[in-house]
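Sample pair:
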Amino acid sequence: MPASRLGTAASSRGSGLFFVARAGRPRPGAQVPAALHLSDHPLTQAFAAFDLPDGRIDKVYLHWSAGPYDRPSSAYHFVVGFRTGLLFAEQTHDVRENMRQVTPDVAYAAHTRGRNSYAIGVSALSMLDATPHDFGPAPLTPELLDALLAMTAFICRRYGITVHPQNVLTHAECAVVENYFGLLPQQRWDLSRLDPAAEPLTEAEALDTGEALRRRISAYLR
């Protein structure tokens, strides 16, 4: 989910769209497919169309949008989602606006509280009305998660970002570190859990999930 500061200006500069067919909606909780080489991912052409200018980008933060599959948000730079049953990737904000020390008086993508300077935010459009035990009408699917991780790998390769817990984090991990992890409106739990479950959500689960996702991102870069 985006950070608490919202309402920044969207930019359509360099936006890239690429659609691929998909056979039905994957079941929530279905087995996550093994990572392919990045060049084999079906959205690689979409990623290549993104406007990724030269400049300083040090970190990438991973989110879900807490919305429907087809509603992009300019709080992030890049999103993946489903539109009319097809997987897509789209640029939603100009990366240049975050290639600096951001301040409240300038426009930028406000994706992660206190962490928007020199940082890119990416999001899987999903998890509308979700809870840890019920992922709701737009659950995070294995296909959507895989697209998010492949997109993150593409961005890390472009900017020479090492896939490390200090550089590539989920929003939930940031929330754990900065004491706003949880389910209240002002808290965040993005990507702390990948399948609905009855067990209480914990900080340890959020950190373990982050580590697992980084391993999959790294696999795309081998």
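The two ends are 29 Å apart (CA to CA).
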